[in-house]
Every structure is written in structure tokens, then in C-alpha cells.
Amino acid sequence: MIVVLALVALLGAVVMPSLLKMQQAWQRRLDIQNVMAQIRSLGYRVRLAGQPAAFGPAGIMPSDLLSMPAGWEVGAASPLIYLANGACLGGELILRHDEAIEHITLPAPLCQPATP
After folding, report:
1. What is the predicted pLDDT for the residue at 115?
2. For 31-53, how does the pLDDT look when each residue is reduced to its tens digit (9 = 90+)?
3. Interstrand relation of 80-82 and 59-61 (parallel, antiparallel or unpaired)
4. How many CB atoms lie within 10 A of CB 109?
5. Do residues 66 and 48 touch, judged by C-beta distance below 8 A?
6. At the top level of its lineage, which domain of life is listed (predicted)?
7. d(CA 39, CA 51)
8. Which spans in the chain are helix H?
9. Which of 3, 10, 22, 111 has the fewest CB neighbours in a 10 Å radius?
10. What is the pLDDT, as a whole number, of residue 105?
């Protein structure tokens, strides 16, 4: 009986780190999909608000247009501008989470990112 318990404990010690890494990868993927869905609808939401929006190194202005998951940041090396009519001038967004960085290209005029 003790041998069986020892084998089960050993198996659990080997498998548990892999399960935790897999769960973290799934959560990261879910967070990216959430942000991408918000970016896809950003032109529409800017048009409804009737005011322009811009991404820069510090994030998006106005800041209430995106709801970022905990620990995530969004920015752009060069300004990415959404006009008040919902059109976008195009550019590249940078998503950061811990050491992971994702570059998302948004082609004008709709600025629809590719599905990750």
C-alpha cells in the first residue's frame, strides 16, 4: 500500500508542473482573444462615441475604450489614430504581459487584426 501511495505521489509531482503551465498558456490565449475582440470593435465604438482615439507609448486615449486583463498593457511605438468617423490610419500595436510581447499589425482603413 505504501509503495502505491509513493508511486501516485511521484506521478503527481511529475505531472503537476505541466498542468500548471498548460493552464497558464490557456489563460494567456484567452486574454489575447479578449483583447483582439475589443480591438476589432474599436472603430465601431469610436464612431458611436463621436470622438477620435489614439494609441501611443502610454496606451490608448481615451483610456476607457479598452478593458485590459490584469497584468496586460497595450501601446504603440508610433501613434495609431482612430478618427471620429471610425476609420483608422493604420499602424502596429504592442501587447505586453510579463516577458511576452505580441505585435499586432492593423492595416488602414478598418484596422482589423488577424485572428491569433
Report:
1. 58
2. 989 999 999 999 999 999 999 99
3. unpaired
4. 13
5. no
6. Bacteria
7. 16
8. 2-40, 42-49
9. 3
10. 92
Amino acid letter for position 54: A
Dist. CA 53–CA 45, nearest whole Å: 10
Which tens digit of pLDDT belongs to each residue from 61-87? Answer: 888 888 989 889 999 989 999 999 999
Torsion of CA 56, 59, 60, 64, to 10 degrees: -170
- Residue 14 grid coordinates: 511529475
Cell 471610425 belongs to residue? 86
pTM over 0.90: no
Q: Are 97 and 28 in contact (CB under 8 A)?
A: yes
**Largest Cα span, the chain:** 72
Coarse DSSP helix, strand, coil percentages of the chain, rounded to the nearest 5 percent: 45, 25, 30
d(CA 94, CA 106): 11
Read off the DSSP letter of residue 115: P
The CA-based angle 39-60-115, given to 5 degrees, is 20
Taking only the tens place, the pLDDT of each residue in 97-107 is: 888 888 999 99
